[in-house]
Design brief:
single chain, 330 residues
Length: 330
C-alpha cells in the first residue's frame, strides 16, 4: 500500500484545493526559520513509520497534514485519524496541531487545539507520541479520573470506554469515506478497500460476544458466543452503525461477499422493546407518585386538589408519548 501512496509528499501550491479544507489554511503565517522546517521535512521523509502518512505544501510551508492508522490491538484499530498542523511564526518555540477528522474521538481533545514546546521534540516525535500514548489499548487512561479504572472491579467501566471509542471510530470511518480530507482521497479509498473485511469480521465478533474490543480475532465455527463480552448498549449502537459502515464500504468498492454480514435489525427491534419497557416502568412509577401526591394535596386543599389531579393526568399522558421517540444515528 505504501508503494501506491507515498508516505511523505510535497503538494504544489498550484493545487489549492488540496489545502482548502485545512484547519489553519485561513491563517497564513511566515515562520522565522524556513531551514528548521526543511529539516523537519527531511526527518519526516526519512523516518516515518509505516502507519503514519504526511503531506506538506509548497508555498505554505507552515502547513502539514498527517494521518495515523489506528493500531491493531486497540479500539482504534484500522481507523484513520487526521491531524492538521501549523508551524507558527515563532517556530521552533511553538507548534500547533488539531484533530481534523470528525467526530471527536479523544477526550483530551475537547479544546480542539494542542501545542507542544520544542526543542524536546520534532514533528515526527509528536506524531509518534500521539500514536503511542493516545491511540493505545487503554483509552480510558485519557479520561478524567482514570485512576479508578486501574482496579479489576472496574472492568465494566473499561469495557464501556472501549465500546464507546470503537463506535466513534466506526462513525469516523463513515464520515471520512463520505468526505475524505483533501490530498488523501486516494489513500482513504485504498485503505478501506484493503481493510474493510478485517474491520467487519472484527465488528461481527464484537457484536456476537466472541471477542473483546481490540483483541486479536481468531473466530472459528467452534468459538463460543459469550453475550457478556458486549453490553446491550453497545449492541444497540452497533445495530445502527453497522449497516451504514457496510454500505460505505460497498460504495467504496470493497468486496464483502466472503463475509457473513449480520442482520442488525433484530438488535434494533430488541433495543426498541427494551426502551419501551423502560419507559413504561418510568411512566408507571411517575403515575403512582402523582396519584398519591394528588390524594395528599386534596386532603390539604379540598376541591382544589382536583386541579392538581388533572395536571397529574396531563403529565401521565405526555409521558405515554416517550416510547414513540426513536434512537438516531449521528
Amino acid at each position: 500500500m505504501a508503494t501506491e501512496f507515498k508516505q511523505f509528499d510535497i503538494i504544489s501550491i498550484n493545487e489549492f484545493n488540496s489545502i482548502s479544507d485545512h484547519h489553519y489554511v485561513s491563517r497564513s503565517l511566515s515562520p522565522s526559520s524556513t531551514e528548521a522546517i526543511m529539516e523537519e521535512w527531511r526527518i519526516l521523509e526519512k523516518d516515518l513509520p509505516d502507519s503514519i502518512f504526511v503531506r506538506v505544501y509548497k508555498g505554505r510551508v507552515d502547513l502539514l497534514r498527517a494521518v495515523i492508522i489506528g493500531p491493531s490491538g486497540t479500539p482504534y484499530h484500522d481507523g484513520l485519524f487526521f491531524f492538521d498542523i501549523q508551524v507558527p511564526s515563532n517556530y521552533p518555540a511553538l507548534l500547533e496541531y488539531v484533530l481534523a477528522s470528525p467526530p471527536k474521538v479523544f477526550s483530551w481533545n475537547d479544546d480542539r487545539s494542542k501545542k507542544r514546546n520544542p526543542p524536546q521534540s520534532t514533528i515526527l516525535q509528536v506524531l509518534v507520541s500521539i500514536q503511542g500514548l493516545v491511540l493505545n489499548g487503554e483509552p480510558f487512561i485519557n479520561f478524567p479520573g482514570f485512576e479508578s479504572f486501574a482496579n479489576s472491579s472496574s472492568w465494566f467501566k473499561k469495557r464501556s470506554v472501549h465500546e464507546n471509542v470503537f463506535i466513534k471510530n466506526c462513525k469516523t470511518m463513515v464520515s471520512i469515506l463520505k468526505k475524505p480530507p483533501q490530498s488523501f482521497e486516494k489513500f482513504v479509498s485504498q485503505h478501506f478497500r484493503h481493510r474493510a473485511s478485517t474491520i467487519l469480521v472484527a465488528f461481527n465478533a464484537y457484536i456476537n460476544g466472541q471477542a473483546e474490543i481490540g483483541d486479536p480475532i481468531t473466530v472459528t465455527a467452534a468459538t463460543e458466543i459469550t453475550a457478556s463480552l458486549a453490553s446491550f448498549t453497545f449492541k444497540a449502537e452497533a445495530g445502527f452503525v453497522y449497516p451504514r459502515l457496510v454500505d460505505s464500504f460497498i460504495k467504496n468498492g470493497s468486496s464483502v461477499e466472503s463475509i457473513e454480514l449480520l442482520d442488525t435489525s433484530k438488535t434494533i427491534r430488541e433495543y426498541t422493546v427494551h426502551e419501551h419497557r423502560n419507559c413504561q416502568l418510568v411512566v408507571l412509577m411517575i403515575f403512582i407518585l402523582v396519584f398519591y401526591s394528588t390524594i395528599l394535596v386534596k386532603k390539604s386543599h379540598g376541591a382544589g386538589g382536583l386541579l392538581y389531579s388533572l395536571f397529574g393526568l396531563d403529565i401521565f399522558l405526555l409521558l405515554l408519548l416517550i416510547p414513540s421517540l426513536h434512537f438516531e444515528f449521528n
